[in-house]
């Protein structure tokens, strides 16, 4: 194949924002090239520079050995299919398609011939004299393609051209576009953020990120051998796991070595590992490479998407002391008051304020009409050491309640293998508070002040799971253990077998199903 | 919704008393002889015949049409480029220009025309040119705003698409921008031509009595001469001409589709 376009080190800046940071790319004749990336990655900017609607700040676009920077858009041998088609509303289908040919002042009979051929290529026979504004999205799309192709450009640029169509029509047009490209035999440069579109149609996929090209390859290459985590995430569903390359053909994650076919890394280099969900087989427990527990099963039509946990996260169990509701009634003043004991961190004693004490104890007073009464008296004396201290709340009318504040140090669990720490406090709650909670898991995390962190960089780690063994509808007084844990290793599997949640399974894959990538940046 | 339909009644009554009845009275005046009373109505077509027999009246009519026509042409010629430049401006600057264009309209038209008289009496131009200046000055903003509105509604992608298909700036203007802005031009014509053809105080104030238009004729027959029947006939002829021109512009408008997005 012959090289048609050479994009050389293109930089594009708008004011001070750099959108393209030195992009180089070769495009060959008859190639279907897809620029793939999320919005803002610079793919449309690159397309517009090739079309001539924008000038590059630096670098050059060479077409047929000639720098085309000085050639205005209307003289370039390139045509564009716009995102929203940009059909001329004052012209009918025929005149829209004939627009470019009329500009070139071609003889009428030749225009007629070419336009009619295009109309039949895109399947719009009988629509020649329809008003373009009355056409459906798919038909407008076809007019836009015909309008561009009729000029017989060397390159057709398509700017997110399918994004305005609904899903079924989009799939249909994907196939049709590919057929049209084969038939007319010219280069298509297609811009999209849809990885499926890119895989279906392209000869070559260019994955872009933040104004740079991450990977260039055929659909099979970018799918099977993504160069880094970003490309792996962008193309297809994957399990991406932090691992260590022990030596050639041996990779380690979650403290277990696995055979692979990758090599050429440093010894003990930190790497990202990709295992595609469809490459993993479910086998009986202890028969695979790793065991797991099924966390969720989603039906996806052709297959089930199974999430299996192969190693648990870091966890910490605390005790929830459930007490009866003990409102104190002051009959003379027609008032009631309530408050609960609470635990607090020794570190927080110095910065404790009255309003915080009220909030933590959930102290409140109300009268017979259920109107709130302000707590005007708060009496407590905490020492800066572990221990239990009384605290009294009261109203103007003399209604009072006394609770215990237990100052303690947090219960911390540090898990060296996961490099995570987690801490939480025991806590007191009344039966009513638990029954009234609408989001119990979230409330439990808040009540226990549960917090998990990464020991390496001290960043916060989400509390992924809250386990307890009581029914919040029927709970009675007593002590209950509550366990908080972080997310363990979860692996996504695509299978056609029916699997139940909670099932204990084994997972198996072949060494060549593992793909090892260098860490990014 | 049914209850709300009664709200139309005040307008229907208003329209009947203030528009339909006077119109019918004009028709009645135009086809009767002067000095009738209600019991002895004498119908005639004499008023119309008189208009066309005397060469002065058709020539005044012709002059009025010509005046309105050229006023409209000048307004398009001056207004289109102005609107085009405004449509290309950044939004803030364009809004400022729209304000500048509409600013004179905040002051009464009569006052502004008097101001022009003050200026024009110091520089002696022909009364025809004076009237043109007054007409164009008064009606130009309407034309600019209509064209500006239709130009700014054009999707900029259409212009990019036109370049992409090989059209240079001139071809893009002729094949895309101009056709898509025609609807604005047509409504601009309606807003300029119709008031211009029947305007009477501008020629009266700026023409110095030398430059009589059809509006002045009507005014003269109703107020000075007191010949209401002939005045009514002239009004009716004017009304028919306006109806015809409205029909023509409406048709033109329908043939140019709106620039839609």
Structure description:
The complex is a heterodimer of chains A (521) and B (261). Chain A is α+β, with helices and mostly antiparallel strands and 521 residues long. Chain A has 3 domains: 229 residues, 3-Layer(aba) Sandwich (Rossmann fold), CATH 3.40.50; 86 residues, no CATH class; 172 residues, Immunoglobulins (Immunoglobulin-like, Sandwich), CATH 2.60.40.10. Chain A contains 11 helices and 36 strands. In chain A, the strands form 8 sheets. A 6-stranded mixed β-sheet of chain A has the order 6-7-8-3-9-10, sandwiched between helices. In chain A, strand 11 and strand 12 form a beta hairpin. The longest helix of chain A has 18 residues. The mean pLDDT of chain A is 89. With 261 residues, chain B is mainly alpha-helical. Chain B has a domain of 178 residues: MetI-like (MetI-like fold), CATH 1.10.3720.10. Chain B is globular and about 75 Å long. Chains A and B meet through strand 6 and helix 2 of A and helix 7 and helix 8 of B.
